[in-house]
Amino acid sequence: MEPEAAKLIGAGLAAIGTGAAGIGVGNLFGQYLQGALRNPSAASSQFTNLIFGFAITEALGIFALLIALLLLFVV
C-alpha cells in the first residue's frame, strides 16, 4: 500500500469520531429531554450534568477532527 493511500485511510477513520460525537450529542440531549418530561422537578438538577456531558462529547469530536486534519496535512 502506498503511504499516501494509508494516510487518507487513516484520516477517514479518524474523521469517523466527529460523526460519532454528533450521534453522542443527539443521544445525550434526547435522553435528557426524555428524563425531563418524565420528572420535570428533577430536570433543573440534571442540567449541569447535561452541559458537562455535552462539553466532553464535543471536545472528543473536535479532537478527532484535529487528528484527521493532522494526518491529512502534516504527516
Overview of this structure, please?
The chain has 75 residues and is mainly α. It has a domain at 28-75. The protein contains 2 helices and no strands.
What descriptive keywords fit this protein?
0% strand, 75 residues, mainly alpha, 89% helix
Give me the secondary-structure topology.
Layout lengths: L2 H36 L4 H31 L2
Strand content: under 5%
Task: Note the run of SSEs as H and E.
Answer: HH
Q: Can you count the beta strands?
A: 0
Largest sheet: none
Oligomer: single chain
Structural class: mainly alpha
CA(first)-CA(last) distance:
16 Å
- Average per-residue pLDDT, rounded, comes to 93
Fraction in helix: over 70%
Q: DSSP helix count?
A: 2
**Rg result:** 17 Å
Produce a short descriptive summary.
The chain has about 80 residues and is an all-alpha fold.
